[in-house]
Automatic annotation (TrEMBL):
Entry EC number(s): 4.1.1.33
Taxonomic lineage: Bacteria, Pseudomonadati, Pseudomonadota, Gammaproteobacteria, Cardiobacteriales
InterPro entries, sorted: GHMP_kinase_C_sf (IPR036554), Mev_decarb (IPR005935), Mev_diP_decarb (IPR029765), MVD-like_N (IPR053859), Mvd1_C (IPR041431), Ribosomal_Su5_D2-typ_SF (IPR020568), Ribsml_uS5_D2-typ_fold_subgr (IPR014721)
Residue ranges constituting the Mvd1 C-terminal domain according to the UniProt record: 199-323
Keyword entries, A-Z: ATP-binding, Lipid biosynthesis, Lipid metabolism, Lyase, Nucleotide-binding
A GO MF label: diphosphomevalonate decarboxylase activity
Enzyme class: lyase
GO cellular component terms, A-Z: cytosol
Chain segments annotated as coiled-coil in the UniProt record: none
Record protein name field: diphosphomevalonate decarboxylase
Amino acid sequence: MTKEEYFNRFLPPHLQAKDSGQAYAPANIALSKYWGKRDAALNLPMNGSLSISLGALGTHTTVIAIDAPQDMMVLNGKNISPDSAFYRKTQAFIRLFRRGQTPSLLIESSNTIPTAAGLASSASGFAALTLALADLWQLDLDSRILSSFARIGSGSAARSLWHGFVKWQKGEAADGSDSYAMPITSDWQDLHIGLLEIDTAEKSVSSRDGMNHTVATSPLYAPWAACAEADLQTIEEAIANRDFHLLAQTAESNAFAMHASMMAARPALIYLQAESFRQIARIHALRAQGLPLYFTADAGPNLKLLYLAKDEAEVLAAFPHMVAINPFA
Ligand code: DP6
């Protein structure tokens, strides 16, 4: 099935447009990662994943019908050129929703994620855009369908429709209709996240290219996928039992397993930098001294620390530049 066919299955033949639509979606950090697709066009993952959303750090998006020859896009107050990759990717995604002739749109997005956090905004971006378009065109669709739409924009966006812990089940159906994310009920105020910037320069290999390369060439890919499914279950149990050590230790091990699968790709794919490893050694030294401090890392050099609220002052003393977050605030 193509993505056009998938959208056509759920959208009405004619859109009932309002003048504008708007939405907010939080960024998210995977505790058990998505790394590898079984279907590239539909963005279907090889394994399920589980994330925690970052509350007020995310993307606000407004879409307004305008009288203009083509769509206009403004990101963080700056006009985006129609020649840019961002414009083309966004427009290709919006085209999936459009039923024939719809008026041009002004798409205005702003990220509340500090640039210094070194955090990707594509997950919250595609989630906020999906919700804003659903608002504009008054789509009366189940949130599971909207999550699967956001997934087609960017896999991790499927999880950014909700706050708190979110699980994206890999699904079994060939059309991807059962590959969506749903929230896990929890109000774990003690669990805090720290964003530790190592390097915020744009990475040279995107997550998309990186995971495709890992699936195609890494002898450690199959063991990674099996490990990811087991870690997902362990983290769900840890959430149910509020077991911080089990959750954080599993998330850290899961990140190392994902990075190991990339490093074993041919040629190797290495996102962590020397400075990442220097800070990981500091985290491990603090932990050896008794501080319950763990980390995870995505397809980049930056670290996301996991710790308990009671230890925030101590963690900030060790990492003064860290951005501290209570995801359940
Ligand atoms: C390492 O969702 O950015 O952050 O589906 O190709 O757009 P595409 O990839 P993307 O990959 C995220 C990878 C990750 C792990 C995760 O968020 O689960």
